Amino acid sequence: MLNLILFGPPAAGKGTQAKRLVAERNLIQLSTGDMLRAARASESELGKKVAGIMDRGDLVSDEIVIALIEEQIDANPDAKGFIFDGFPRTVAQAKALDVALSARGQKVDKVIRLCVDDTALMSRITKRFEEEGRKDDNPESFKIRLGNYNKQTAPLLPYYESQGKLSEVDGMAEIEAVSDSINRVLGTEIEAKPAKKKGFFARLFS
């Protein structure tokens, strides 16, 4: 069992690396955004609660997000582990995740931070925006997103570092080099084909 948290700002390639880990290591990626949308669509009791909160424009509580994560862990007992994407974002959430995993005899095993140069990342986004005109690459909006990410992540790094779980890799390297660095951190003991997911989230995460 390997439970992994990947930290990386927007456009740092975190999604690409997560997909590789899913394919190569039999891990399941749990994206909080995807889980909330799937819960809403499911019309389960928890899903109806999520829908009401989202319709009001309120923030979904940590308790509900943890409940969704627990549901997915319990629905996939054969998984070799999970990649937590978009959670935790605060120390309080990190502690709640620790409690949820501990109750199932599990823990966060590794936390990998993709280190990037903010200036170089901004230049990359600006160039892509000028060449492709993608709205989500708007440099001014991206600058805000990047700043928010850095503020959110900063307190979490010492939390996991104090537990000896934090490793950092060069996120500005080529995709293959980043993947190699991550594999060196994780080791090669659980490489396998992806497991099939169960439960009503299966189609969304496959």
From TrEMBL:
The record's catalysed reaction(s) read: AMP + ATP = 2 ADP
Q: Which residue ranges does the record annotate as region NMP? A: 31-60
- The UniProt record gives the binding positions of AMP as 32, 37, 58-60, 86-89, 93, 134, 145
Q: Name one cellular component (GO) term.
A: cytoplasm
InterPro entries from the entry?
Answer: Adenylat/UMP-CMP_kin, Adenylat_kinase_CS, P-loop_NTPase
Q: Which SUPFAM superfamilies match?
A: P-loop containing nucleoside triphosphate hydrolases
Q: Which Gene3D superfamilies match?
A: P-loop containing nucleotide triphosphate hydrolases
GO: which molecular function terms?
AMP kinase activity; ATP binding
What's a GO biological-process term for it?
A: AMP salvage
Give the E.C. number(s). Answer: 2.7.4.3
UniProt-listed PANTHER family: NUCLEOTIDE KINASE
Checking HAMAP family in the record gives: Adenylate_kinase_Adk
Return the similarity comment: Belongs to the adenylate kinase family.
Q: What is known of its domains?
A: Consists of three domains, a large central CORE domain and two small peripheral domains, NMPbind and LID, which undergo movements during catalysis. The LID domain closes over the site of phosphoryl transfer upon ATP binding. Assembling and dissambling the active center during each catalytic cycle provides an effective means to prevent ATP hydrolysis.
Function comment = Catalyzes the reversible transfer of the terminal phosphate group between ATP and AMP. Plays an important role in cellular energy homeostasis and in adenine nucleotide metabolism.
| Official protein name in the record | Adenylate kinase
Q: What is the lineage of its organism?
A: Bacteria, Pseudomonadati, Pseudomonadota, Alphaproteobacteria, Maricaulales
